[in-house]
Amino acid sequence: MSKLILGLGLTIVATFSTVASAESYLARQEVEAYIVELIAEHNFSRQELEEVLAAAERRQDIIDLMRRPAERRLNWHEYGKIFLDEQRIAGGVEFWQQNQATLQRAEKEYGVPPEVIVAIIGVETRYGRVTGKHRVVDALMTLAFDYPPRARFFRKELTQFLLLAREEGKSPMSLLGSYAGAMGYGQFIPSSYRSYAVDFDQDGVRDIWQNRIDAIGSVANYFSRHGWRGVGDVTVPVQIKTETEQLRSLANESLKPTHSVAEMTEMGVIADGLDPEARVLLLRLSGGKNPEYWLGFNDFYVITRYNHSRLYAMAVYQLGQEILRRRKQPIG
Q1: Is 124 designated active site?
Q2: Three-state DSSP class for 328?
Q3: pLDDT higher for 280 or 7?
Q4: What is the pTM of this model?
């Protein structure tokens, strides 16, 4: 039977004191039921699960962070400033230059342009500089058992994490990530790692934590698998004849491109030069003097599959475009 790689001095001898300090988890009926489920479905041993789950700590700060994500607290003007700063743009140009060959190969194999891959890594971790300080096992245990609004989702991610650790020979106690359990350069949650991470340098390991080549290939694969087309516009700014309640409502209706350009035109969007049959979504970005209206196409929707937020997708798009523009500027 495969065992979790426990590491960090976590031994059977030390388990008793650890269990005592984490009794609030191991003594809970729902955690016991979860352990029984993992044993039955994934052939873990009780001992190895209890050692890991006993060492996990409930983190109130993680719950607090989940309750106030930036995408819900900030308008576009505030949110955009976070990601479109000079340091992140310059860092993107540098990251592109340092990894140019890998980015070109990723584009060739997956059809995803370098500016999108670089922007994702820039938004997520400032090009690998800020990958998260929370133990992933603490984050996922806390959210799986002490955050009811999304407990079901995070319990599945906890399972995926334990499977990931076993499959990849990783210590579950050693992996760090975000407060939501996302890891590495591109901040993959465990299920995304297991589904989309690739061994892009073909060394036998899918390393999104330290290996830029694997990280770049994994982000490109994620976008490809979610339907990135790489043709036509991603998103374009538009004008409107009159800001009606219908348009305001439509702008918050769905992340999917469910309406045609022709339908948008009938509702008052000025979309000259665009294919009337193209499927789009409408965005309304607030925070400046006047709201901005944009139309998002298929590939904009694909960006939202990485993070289900219009603000996030727009930040990625605009950061990528700014990095691309900066790279094209003549030196000197």
Answers
A1: yes
A2: helix
A3: 280
A4: 0.90
